[in-house]
Design brief:
This protein is of the alpha+beta class. The chain has a single domain, classed as Alpha-Beta Complex (Sulfite Oxidase, Chain A, domain 2). The protein has ten helices and 13 strands. The strands form two sheets. Strands 1, 4, 5, 8, 9, 10, 12 and 13 form an eight-stranded mixed β-sheet that branches. A five-stranded mixed β-sheet has the order 3-2-11-6-7. A hairpin with a 4-residue loop joins strand 4 and strand 5. The protein is globular. Bound molecules: the ligand Nc1nc2c(c(=O)[nH]1)N[C@H]1C(S)=C(S)[C@@H](COP(=O)(O)O)O[C@H]1N2 and molybdenum atom. Molybdenum atom (MO) binds next to loops.
Length: about 300
């Protein structure tokens, strides 16, 4: 389904088109179930901290949709764009909410889209491998979904699980990581207003390679925390296992907040290649990496008193 015209658009045009449009959530919900509603625009209000883009130029859309990490569809950056489009996710997309909550339930994509108005959030995203990119996401705050259930007093963390089907995705052996991909956040991180459940980017529904039909976006953490194609959300009492901290614990911790002062065994963390189309892919503009990826004003309070080097 096409939510809004996108394509690579010169930025001033892009912004002029974007007024505070509000569509009823019911419309959006039905849109989600109709394959390609053609001209039907997806109206998302513009919110979030990056209104004034300044030095944060939007990249050409094809950078976001052809240079991906989605190991289930191949470990090469170009492979998800080649292999993921053939996958046909269940249009109802049932997501299981379970664990330390009073009322476990399954909630589908259409129902999720009715929980809150869609917003466009332009976020800087930082991959631990050393590149970063600015993404015009479309989604709803994750908190809108989490508020649908009543956590028990034991709920301290939220664990997420990606869809995995060996018939359409590669094997764990081939990918070099265990599947299904799992991630987790502390409950307060998960409820933070910056934490987004994204269903689109650049005005359209998420392409499969970007984590259709819904993925997490946690802009102050390294990209791997932003788990794709979520099918299960579990409230838990203990810090849950996360894919990369299991695969390589010395390099990847649970928190994985962007931190230029915490070195990584393989990748430089105090500078990044901004993929904004100004250079060849992989040779973007070099910029300095900021603590919490530049979102310290919004999120530093979550970590008062926590040693960010020990708790990496
Ligand atoms: N299920 C799943 N989610 C995932 C990954 C993955 O391999 N599998 N890769 C992560 C990494 S390392 C990054 S940088 C981002 C990339 O998101 P993008 O392709 O939309 O830029 O997705 C994250 N989410
Ligand atoms: Mo990443």
């Amino acid at each position: 389904m096409k939510l809004r015209h996108s394509d690579v658009t010169p930025q001033h045009l892009y912004w002029n088109r974007r007024k505070f449009l509000s569509a009823s959530a019911a419309t959006l919900g039905s849109l989600a179930l109709s394959p390609f509603a053609g001209a039907a625009p997806l109206n998302a209000s513009k919110t979030g901290p990056l209104h004034n883009l300044g030095n944060n130029q939007l990249p050409p859309k094809n950078i976001l949709t052809t240079y991906n990490n989605f190991y289930e569809f191949g470990t090469g950056k170009d492979e998800p764009a080649k292999n993921a489009p053939a996958w046909k996710p269940n249009p109802e997309w049932p997501v299981r909410l379970e664990g330390e909550i009073a009322n476990p339930k399954t909630i589908g994509l259409a129902e999720i889209l009715k929980l809150a108005p869609l917003e466009e959030r332009i976020y800087r995203m930082r991959c631990v491998e050393g590149w970063s990119v600015v993404v015009p996401w479309i989604g709803i705050p994750l908190s809108a979904v989490l508020k649908q259930v009543q956590p028990t007093g034991n709920a301290k963390f939220v664990a997420f699980e990606s869809f995995y089907d060996s018939k359409v995705m590669i094997s764990s052996g081939k990918a070099g990581i265990r599947f299904p991909y799992v991630e987790g956040l502390r409950l307060d991180e998960a409820m933070h207003p910056l934490t987004l459940l994204a269903v689109g980017l650049y005005g359209e529904t998420l392409p499969n390679q970007n984590g259709a039909p819904m993925r997490l976006v946690v802009p102050w953490k390294y990209g791997f925390k932003s788990i794709k194609s979520i099918t299960r959300i579990r409230f838990v009492d203990r810090q849950p296992m996360t894919t990369w901290s299991v695969e390589w614990p010395e390099a990847y911790g649970f928190y994985s907040n962007v931190n230029p002062k915490k070195p990584h065994p393989s990748f430089d963390q105090d500078a990044e290649d901004r993929l904004d189309g100004s250079g060849i892919l992989g040779q973007g503009r070099k910029i300095r990496t900021e603590l919490f990826n530049g979102y310290a004003a919004q999120v530093a309070g979550l970590y008062t008193g926590l040693d960010l080097i020990k708790n990496y």
